[in-house]
């Protein structure tokens, strides 16, 4: 008998004996007089046992069917063992057709000793940056190195998520976090939705310059040249933001926690252990993931930018090369022959712009006109940006190919300060040097007389 039912025998016995009225007994037990009269009738017929709830000890009418219960217990221990409570419930309902709730799956998994697979963020990390109002206004990009395939080898997964809706717009497996991977990610994003207004990344060397050395060409305007990826973003009209901490781009950081749970479980469920098969599975996974987790934007008008027609040519590394005497241009191990121009013109000695595209094609332009295009070298081509050789303050003149230039280590200086430092550093020519001769005829004659008086000679 429960604590609530423990007061019934005394009050009902008093009412049957005529010590209290039915209304007083019902008021004391907080029930209606009609229900109290039923208790009196059951007390007269069965005694104290009749005051206990009739459903005590009987199975619940809302209990799981025995076959469904056994099936769920079997699946959560075998097929869906790596799935969390919510993810496992989705699979049991949608794939297996079993009508179970998340609380039921949670209770059964705890009874079987399966640990919970959920994360609770600390209170100090729950404050979130306000979302952008429109789709395409801000896209966060990042990479996560993890054992995605369950083979014991860590593989890098690059991702892009829209800030306004938390829609995962692109995913791409790569061996390393490199320029080729992020350009591929940008290409897929442009093919799916368009180009974003702003791209939000970290301070990886692919996105920003992390060196403290400045060339003379950078000292004069007071700004460092962008990276190859930065040149692509500038050419496409995309703004870029460099985060200084993981918390600043917390939405994509939380996405990695979700994918390391759900994507890994889905890949293991399908027996996928190769990069090619995992890459082919990503579109189907993205469609299901966005259907569950994407949210509507504050404003319905998207702001995706239409990609240009020559997007394939703009997703490239840019170099400047001088044409050799045999009308060829060399870029690393590749040698490109430039055909002669109009009237048999040769471009030897001219500076041309060389673009190394994402697929390996080489495009050579001269004053905005295309001279030639070299095809992709091989199917397994990987775009590797070349490092521009810059003069450093620690280099010797022989190693730098000239004099040591006074380069600033603490950032950009003004153009006047850079020119003054350069002028003070240059060597002063010798006295008989023509640069030190005056333009005044009278002064030259005085210098000649002074030299003769000193017993010297003047050439």
Low-confidence runs of at least 5 consecutive residues: 388-413
Structural class by sheet pairing and helices: alpha+beta
Query: What is the multimeric organization of the chains shown?
Result: single chain
Q: Would you list the SSEs in sequence order as H and E?
A: HHHHHHEEEHEHHEHHHEEEEEEHHH
DSSP, total strands: 11
Largest sheet: 5 strands, mixed
Q: Walk across the major sheet and give the strand order.
A: 3-2-1-4-5
Q: According to CATH, what is the topology of the domain at 129-202 and 243-293?
A: Nucleotidyltransferase, domain 5
The level-1 CATH class of the domain at 129-202 and 243-293:
Alpha Beta
Write out the CATH superfamily name of the domain at 129-202 and 243-293: Ribonuclease H-like superfamily/Ribonuclease H
Q: Give helix % range.
A: 25-40%
Overall, the morphology is elongated
Structure, explained:
- Among the domains are: about 45 residues, no CATH class; about 45 residues; about 120 residues, Nucleotidyltransferase, domain 5 (2-Layer Sandwich); about 60 residues, no CATH class; about 30 residues, no CATH class.
- It is α+β, with helices and mostly antiparallel strands and about 450 residues long.
- The longest helix is centred in the middle third of the chain and has 20 residues.
- The protein is built from 15 helices and 11 strands.
- Helix 1 packs antiparallel against helix 2 and helix 1 crosses helix 3.
- The strands form 3 sheets. It has a 5-stranded mixed β-sheet with strand order 3-2-1-4-5, sandwiched between helices. Strands 6-9-10-11 form a 4-stranded antiparallel β-sheet.
- A hairpin with a 5-residue loop joins strand 2 and strand 3.
